[in-house]
Specification:
This protein is mostly beta strands. It contains 3 helices and 12 strands; from the N terminus they run ββββαββαββββαββ. The chain has a single domain, classed as Immunoglobulin-like (Sandwich), CATH 2.60.40. The protein has a 7-stranded mixed beta sheet.
Length: 243
């Protein structure tokens, strides 16, 4: 994993009435750009909700998110501990999508399919479900609402709404409070033994007829759209100051 440095961001009022529909029309003048990961992002909040919009313009990153999954970690102490997490989209393996049924350069509509569930961890309301991720309907996840889509300009747009009630309890949002947010993709699962013929998990997109090459750490991976061999997960950290 590449070392992720924390970025301080001040949350603003929502740019307009935010509709969680996987479109960025409300966010056009609110984005910041990450040159290291080629992602654009925006954060905002009102009295009841935190809103996020993340946008990927490069197809390699789009496919990485859709194939290996994406987790948003939240830390109400303002740090980057993995207190509460939202996994959406889940990996292809977790969504029971097998690339060998579609070809390894499957179009984005295949990678976006079967995307009606998410996994949550750490929220107090989940205590009775025990440790680990709990899978819930993405449309009825305790007020958490995610949506991901590809827009007309062929960019991947991910919107998310999180109730402050789930993060801070009955006290709700606290103006001026810092919230730690970490964005993390999954990664390809490499064979454990060099020279072996072990296969990556189905979620990695490597089919049973392909041998995964062992990555030389001194050689930069070939970042073609569907080659993720030897590539680490993408990891971004923020400290958001709530308004």
């Amino acid at each position: 994993m590449h070392k992720a440095y924390s970025q301080a961001v001040e949350s603003k009022n929502p740019p307009a009435k935010v509709t969680i529909d996987g479109k960025d029309k409300e966010w056009e003048n609110s984005f910041f750009f990450s040159s290291s990961n080629h992602l654009v992002y925006a954060f905002s909040n009102d009295d009841k909700f935190l809103y996020l919009c993340i946008k990927a313009n490069e197809e390699h990153m789009m496919r990485k998110i859709l194939r290996f999954g994406f987790i948003i970690w939240l830390d109400t102490s303002g740090g980057h501990k993995e207190h509460e997490g939202i996994k959406y989209p889940m990996s292809l393996k977790e969504r029971n999508i097998h690339l060998h049924d579609h070809g390894h350069s499957a179009n984005l509509s295949v990678l976006l399919s079967n995307n009606n569930e998410m996994e949550l961890i750490g929220f107090p309301a989940l205590k009775e479900d025990g440790p680990g991720f709990v899978r819930v309907d993405a449309g009825f996840g305790m007020g958490i609402k995610p949506k991901i889509n590809v827009d007309s300009l062929h960019s991947l747009v991910y919107e998310l709404k999180i109730p402050f009630l789930l993060l801070y309890g009955k006290n709700g949002k606290q103006s001026g409070k810092e919230l730690g947010i970490r964005l993390e993709t999954g990664k390809i699962e490499e064979p454990k033994k060099p020279g072996g013929h072990g296969h990556a998990e189905a979620g990695s997109g490597v089919g049973p007829h392909m041998q995964t090459k062992i990555h030389d750490p001194h050689v930069t991976p070939d970042k073609t759209n569907d080659n993720f061999t030897g590539e680490t997960n993408t990891d971004m950290k923020f400290v958001i100051k709530l308004n």
